[in-house]
Structure formats: C-alpha cells, structure tokens
Amino acid sequence: MAMEQTLSMIKPDGVKRGLIGEVIGRFEKQGLKIKAMKMLHLTLNQARAFYAVHKERPFYDSLTGFMSSGPIVALILEGENAIQVNRDLMGATDYRQAAPGTIRADFAKDIEANIVHGSDAPETARTEIAFFFNALEKV
Ligand code: CDP
Ligand code: MG
C-alpha cells in the first residue's frame, strides 16, 4: 500500500441537504486526513472542464448543470490507499448498487445527485487536486 492523496467533492445535493459534517465525519473516522478544504460554487464552464473526460456521455450536460447548481465542498484526503479507501466509503456510482453503509447507499436518491465525487486513479487524483488547489492552500 502507498500513501496517497485523492480529491473529494461534496456535491451540491450533499451541501443542500446538510450532509457536509456527516460526510467529513466518515472520512475522519476511516483515518483519512484532510489536507485542504474549501467551499465554492462552480460555474458551468468550470464544471464542464472538471468533467471533460465525460464530454461524450449522454449525461454530460445534465451532470455539469447539476454540478454548477449550488456550492460544493472540495477536499484533499490523504492516507494509505486513500483513493480506494475513499471510493469504498462512497459506494457505487448508482446508489441502487452501492453497498450498504456507504455514503451513496445511505443518502443518494438519484444516480446523478449522488452526494460525493472521488478520484478514481493516481493520475486523475493529481489532475483533480491541481484543478482545485494551489500549493499555498495545502497543509
Ligand atoms: O462519480 P463516479 O466516479 O462514481 O462515476 P462516473 O462514472 O465517473 O460519473 C461521474 C458522475 O456522473 C457520477 O457520479 C454521476 O453524478 C453522473 N452520472 C450520471 O448522472 N449518470 C450515469 N449513468 C453515470 C454517471
Ligand atoms: Mg468518476
């Protein structure tokens, strides 16, 4: 196992529903360290840039509209195997397939509005961290 950093977001539905503390509590209980954190409201163009990897997918316009519909919280999480540990806490993309006890299984009601984002690999983690945070914003 390797010490890793990953990029997490609490999506607009998670912020609106008052789940910031719940989600961050799960990260901390699992031993993930918060290395940076901020709340911001993405513009549509910023959401489109963040999700550019999905630009050919049928859900791209809807997803980027949703992601720019309200404030989000972006975090850098650090720990052993942090990318997979965070993905395991999140659960499957589709909340109906997410394992019991995961964030998405417990709270999501929609495949798009599924509370959290997490990087899926070391290279995407690097790119996504750089999208949100500069060197001065990391501890
Ligand atoms: O977020 P995750 O990495 O689990 O899933 P993804 O395949 O990278 O898709 C990114 C996001 O697009 C998902 O978290 C959903 O919000 C949304 N999505 C959707 O609305 N409909 C789908 N069929 C697949 C994904
Ligand atoms: Mg993804």
Quick summary:
With 139 residues, the protein is α+β, with helices and mostly antiparallel strands.
Description:
It is built from 7 helices and 4 strands. It is globular and about 35 Å long. The protein is an alpha+beta fold and 139 residues long. Strands 2-3-1-4 form a 4-stranded antiparallel sheet. Helix 3 crosses helix 4. The mean pLDDT is 98. Bound molecules: cytidine-5'-diphosphate and magnesium ion.
Overall 3D form: globular
Number of helices: 7
What binds here, in terms of ligands, is: cytidine-5'-diphosphate, magnesium ion
Q: Within the largest sheet, what's the order of strands?
A: 2-3-1-4
Mean pLDDT: 98
Helix and strand sequence: EHHEHHEHHEH
Q: Strand tally, please?
A: 4
- What share of the residues does DSSP label as strand, in percent? 15-25%
The largest sheet, given as strand count, sense and whether it forms a barrel, is: 4 strands, antiparallel
Rg (CA only)? 14 Å
